[in-house]
Amino acid sequence: MGKVLQNKLQKRTALLDSAFELFTTVGFTDTTIRDIASKAGVAKGTFYLYFKDKTDIRDALIRAKASQLLQDAYESMADRKNTSAKEMDVADKFVYIIDHIVDNVAKDVYFVKFISKHLSWGLFAKGPRTPSEYYGIEENGEPILDFEVQIQNMLDADNVKIRDLQVLLFTLLELISSVTYDLALYGEPMSLEEFKPHLHRSIRLLVNDAIIE
Questions:
Q1: Are residues 115 and 18 in the same domain?
Q2: Terminal CA-to-CA distance of the chain, rounded, Å?
Q3: 196 with 99: CB under 8 angstroms?
Q4: Sequence-ordered strand ranges (E) for the chain
Q5: Do 123 and 173 touch, CB atoms closer than 8 A?
Q6: How far is CA 78 from CA 92, 143, 184, 200, in A?
Q7: Which residue of 36, 59, 76, 161 is surrounded by the most CB atoms within 10 Å?
Q8: If you ran DSSP here, which 8-state letter would residue 188 be given?
Q9: What's the rounded Cα separation, in Å, for the pair 72 and 74?
Q10: Whole-angstrom Cα distance, residue 39 to residue 126?
Q11: Residue 211, strand partner residues
Q12: Would you give the distance in Å from CA 112 to the centre of its chain?
């Protein structure tokens, strides 16, 4: 990678990281473009070389953070499947993936507020869909696979056909968005851990209903 391109990527990454920290602590409304640029160590005008406005960088962050959450969950499930003696069926895999997402979102109240209502949008919105596109880099010289592609590959490996995968993924992500926001932030009408058995049952019902026999 040339020095000019590397410098551009570093500045863009610094702007994204600064915006994320400010949005999740100070808040989107109270954060200015000048604040983002200053924290990133660049001039305000540099911001506009990479993003149109504050909404543009927020949307880029949502797509990237949602994508990273989903990919981390998928990779954790794949590792668990490879190391566990217990066989996992397709519903087990979806439960594990959703559990991983919920647990990681719920760890940080600010992160819950920023991302939980946007998980499905982050997956299906137009624009960069993977961390490699978001940062302008690749992993091991190859683009990181899109989450939906990873799930389809998983289903193909298990020889399982799903009726409209996008609808299933959208429904599951909307379900956990509501769960993480209300239960992780307010703990009402019960704690997140108390609700998990109900969540798992709902996931299994949705997945099994979508399987084409």
A1: no
A2: 49
A3: yes
A4: none
A5: yes
A6: 12, 18, 26, 19
A7: 36
A8: -
A9: 5
A10: 28
A11: 162
A12: 11
Q: Read off the amino acid at residue 113.
A: K
If you write DSSP's letter for every residue of 94-134 in order, what string do you get? Answer: HHHHHHHHHHHHHT-HHHHHHHGGGHHHHHHSSS--SHHHH
Amino acid at residue number 159: N
pLDDT digits (tens, 9 = 90+) for 25-70: 999 999 999 999 999 999 999 999 999 999 999 988 888 888 888 8
Other C-beta atoms lying within 10 Å of the C-beta of residue 148? 15
Domain span holding position 35? 1-51
Residues 37 and 131 in one domain: no
Given this model, what pLDDT does residue 34 score? 97
Residue 57 one-letter amino acid:
I
Question: Is the domain of 81 the same as that of 107?
Answer: yes
- Which amino acid, 29? T
Enter the pTM of the model: 0.84
- Tell me the DSSP string of 76-98: HHHHHHHH-SS---HHHHHHHHH
Q: Map tokens 């940062």 to a residue.
A: 135
Q: Which residues of 34-47 are buried (b: 16+ CB within 10 A; e: fewer)?
A: ebbbebbebeeeeb
The string of pLDDT tens digits covering residues 110-153 is 888 888 778 888 777 765 544 444 444 444 444 455 788 889 99
